[in-house]
Amino acid sequence: MGCGQSTPKQLTVDSRGIQHLSDQYVEQFFNTADAKGNSNGKIDIAEASGALTQIGINIEKSKELIQECWELLDKEQSKQATLAEFKVFMYALINSEKGNKARTIFFLCDKNQSGTISVEEFKKVAIKLNKDLTEEQIIEAMHEKEEIGVEKFIKVVTKRI
Ligand SMILES: [Ca+2]
Ligand SMILES: [Ca+2]
């Protein structure tokens, strides 16, 4: 299960097997890290990594995954994350697996942490991952469902057409 093998008290696992960090913990961590730095309402990857260590993630072992996750999130390459971005970063990271980019992208898109993403979000990311995927194929894959889970998402986006 991703890089969060142990289950520290800040982590909970829902019925789908998806891990969640308490909002309170993430916010507290963010504010403390930002206050130690320049209090500009943003933290950088080094500051963010402190939270990973606290919840038992080995930063050295997960280096590539952290880098990939951060790069996917930080589209303007500002090297800084707001609280909202940091929340998504942590959520995606604790549920990611090394070498499974589709999985990381899914969780980065699942901003409300429901474990599913909508058709609109799905279209955005699926096309990014697999340029051969047409809108019709995406809609067909959704079977008119409004939301799609991670297993189904990976199956569709990694399918070679
Ligand atoms: Ca800062
Ligand atoms: Ca969602």
TrEMBL record:
Gene3D superfamilies: EF-hand (1.10.238.10). SUPFAM superfamilies: EF-hand. Residues 61-96, 97-132 form the EF-hand domain. Signal peptide: none annotated. One of its GO terms (molecular function) is calcium ion binding. Keywords: Calcium. It comes from the Eukaryota. This is Calmodulin. It comes from Hexamita inflata.
